[in-house]
Amino acid sequence: MTEEIEEETSKKSERKVSIPESLKEKEEQKKTETISVKEIYSVIASYFPENQFDEFLLNYISNMIYLDNPDNESDLKALIGDYLEDKIKYPENKKEEIIKKIYKQLYKDKNKTTRKAIIAEQLIQPIKLSEISVGSKNKINSINFDTNALTFQIDKLYTDTVVGKEEKKEYVTDKNKIKEMNEFMEAMKKEKMMAMSDVEINHERNESHKVDINIPAFTIHIGGKTLLEDANLKIAFGRRYVLIGRNGVGKTTLLNHIARKEIDGIPKHIQIVHVEQEVIINDNELLNEVLSCDKERLDLLDEFDSINKQLEKQKDDSEIKRLTKKLEKVNLKLEEIGANEAENKAKFILLGLGFKEEDFTKKTKDFSGGWRVRISLAKALFIMPDLLLLDEPTNHLDMNAVMWLEDYLINWPYTLVIVSHAKDFINNIATDVIHLTNQKLVYYKGNYLDFERDRAEKIKQNHRLHEAQVKKMAHMQEFIDRFRYKAKRANLVQSRIKQMNKMEIVEEILQDPSCIFVFPEPTKINPPVLRLDNADLGYNGKVIVGKVNLNVDMSSRIALVGANGSGKTTLLKGLVGDITPIKGLCYRHGKLRLGLFRQHHVDQLDLELSPLEELQKYYPDVETDKIRGHLSQFGIGGNLSLRPNYLLSGGQKSRVALALIMLSNPQILLMDEPTNHLDLDAINALIVALSSYDGGLLIVSHDQNFVEQVCTQIYMIENGHLKQFRGNFNDYRKYLRAQTDKNKLYKLNK
After folding, report:
1. What is the DSSP string of 53-71?
2. Kindly report the CA angle at 649 between 674 and 4, in degrees rounded to 5?
3. Engineered SS bond to 566: which of 132, 424, 711, 717, CB 3.0-4.6 Å?
4. Is 613 exposed, middle or buried (0-12, 13-18, 19+ CB in 10 A)?
5. pTM of the complete model
6. Is residue 670 a contact partner of residue 575, using CB atoms and an 8 Å limit?
């Protein structure tokens, strides 16, 4: 492990601990005696090979040692021995040697005081709200200790209060909390690690692979939380399913379980590929990375070359004859699997997803995260598995690529299950919708429009049946109560009781609670507010977008569109001040507060902090209750606001990022793909909030429904220039269609 990892670890360990003033001196004294997570990490990393242990797992092991405080080498062995044996495959004698060295490095000539001891000491101290408040009015109900990668909240028993009885609370320390968090983190780590496996094209596919999946009554638990209970999985071969549901209900986890065939009943012989939102890519060149999925083709090509080399050297006629026959067989097999078409197919997919020909020889490690997702998507499309699972495939695509993917998937000959919240994308490709709600899977035929209509009708029918049954049961109960003790009516009473017992109760369909975002009203400022005048924007003297003239005021409702790499992000950076125009002028009002929502919002969040702590970090003087109330206005209320950010879904992180931005009460919002990761209800809530927002908007988005409902103008970046597009978003789609090459879709193998 390098110094860079140590530096990164050090940065992650800089989180401050909120503790009473009376304990600060003791804490400072302990710092010199305490073996820190950083120290442990540094030592452990030097013995654990980088190619076998990622940073997360090393953090986890370091925290285990930190919290357990092993008293001897045997205790240390119990903590890390399995990792050394199972994962690194050290023999017993080597394992013992490594453990001895680690223990000596960690604890020689050191006082083995750990954070565990500090916590124990603090638990017996009297705690006062006034002592731990960040401001004069701010109340904090927990003390947080950073353990590098993991965040533990150690609740205190508070007896003092400076407020009324209603705000007086009791918090009891739970000694199992750290253990439970570790277990949950292990479960979540397992989920996160399961990116697309190294699967290969199956050229021996037959009719046995064209199977339906029908699994009744399965349950999924993750980290002690039930995501699905007695749910039914029904996937018919050749259908295109779109899986929808609220953020955090378990859609990605369900796909993970299907991909790993962890649900009993999924046929073991079918090939399943899951393309997730976050992926890991190796060091191959782009085109070779995609082609590497066809191992049979590569092996045959190697054999073909080997035989030819042997023939060149061979002089014996009989041997030449034998090698020639062998070469013919190899060549015939290459023709059968379509080896000559493989490279063209791979190039077609890559170009369709927005890559350029010059990218084909570029190493995958040199691509950004969004482009790496596209690489995994390209590999999956190239493999053409029996069941393809896609998680938000349009998030990192521009409009051209989205339309290409729509066309490609409409002609997909096998089975698709896609998690998506892009309404137009769903409407264009879905044959079925699966709604994950109330820990069940509910199935609807058709696209999202059909789903909305059918669900509304289903809810109406259910409500009528439920009300009718309630009335009937009430009438029967009234009869029973009235004549229960009358002998002449005894038979009738018993009959009614039996009828009620036999009744199949019509459970009322519970609708998801409505999602509402509340944006504060910004302070008015007069124009000009934000503008670019004849500005050249770029980097190191190279112009990306030239001669830009753009005016954004508090009445603006602008959608910014263009291909990936055209300069949309560069323009946003110019407006916000991250870069200075190479030429021209950028004007910002002196009282302007800008809110910037980045496409990769995770980069804005400290994943070790909770949403509450995240906002407190930027706004330490704002009362805790006010921050909690503000978060709840974005659907991050209750315990969710106290959960570490790394445990939140992508959509929940987006809500936190929105809440953080809006706490500053900006007059202008600059938003880069704000609907990515949000569920459909949250997107609708965002549309409503932005529609009533009194500030200015400039939004980069390829979500047609969102843009058409929020924006009144479309500006397009094309060929290095910004110009206003005359028309609506549907007109823009037609324009792109007309501009694209008239290439026919690659004929998919049936």
Report:
1. --HHHHHHHHHHHHHH--S
2. 90
3. 717
4. buried
5. 0.67
6. yes
Q: Which two tokens stand for residue 462?
A: 């259910």
> Tokens 């084909």 label which residue?
360
- Comparing CA positions, the residue from 631, 635, 660 lying closest to residue 649 is 635
Does 501 map to a domain? Answer: no
Do 291 and 168 share a structural domain?
no
Work out how many domains the chain is built from and give that number.
Answer: 3
C-alpha radius of gyration, the chain, whole number: 31
Q: What's the pLDDT tens digit per position in 376-409?
A: 899 999 999 999 999 989 988 889 899 999 999 9
Residue 402 structure tokens: 């989205």
What whole-number distance in Å separates Cα of residue 582 and Cα of residue 90? 57
The DSSP-derived string for 546-562 is EEEEEEE-TT-EEEEE-
Residue type, 363: K
Residue with tokens 């900006």: 666
Distance CA 615, CA 638 (A): 15
Q: For residue 396, tell me if it sits in a domain.
A: yes
State the pLDDT confidence band at 216, using cuts at 50, 70 and 90: very high
* Nearest CA-CA partner of 503 in 474, 481, 525: 474
Torsion of CA 461, 466, 467, 470, to 10 degrees: 160
Question: What pLDDT, in 10s, does the model give residues 56-105?
Answer: 667 767 777 776 677 777 778 777 776 676 666 667 777 788 888 888 88
Question: Do 593 and 707 share a structural domain?
Answer: yes
Contact 222, 253 (CB under 8 A): yes
Residue 218 lies in a domain: no
Distances in Å between the Cα of 243 and the Cα atoms of 116, 390, 551, 694, 737 are: 44, 10, 40, 35, 28
For residue 725, being part of any structural domain is answered with yes
Tell me the CATH number at 681. Answer: 3.40.50.300
Q: Both ends of the chain: CA-CA distance in Å?
A: 48
* Cβ atoms of 419 and 276 closer than 8 Å: no
Give the range of the structural domain holding residue 135, as residue numbers without chain letter.
Answer: 3-181
Q: How many CA atoms lie within 13 A of 402 on its CB side?
A: 23
User: What secondary structure letter does DSSP report for 153?
Assistant: E
749 pLDDT exceeds 50? no
Domain boundary pick from 181, 201, 227:
181
Domain end, chosen from 162, 181, 200, is at: 181
Identify whether the C-beta of residue 151 lies closer than 8 Å to the C-beta of residue 610. yes
Instruction: Give the Cα separation of 654 and 672 in Å (integer).
Output: 12
Q: Which of 120, 109, 114, 119 is nearest to 31 (CA)?
A: 114
Q: Under DSSP, is residue 442 helix (H, G, I), strand (E, B) or coil?
A: strand
> Residue with structure tokens 């190479």?
582
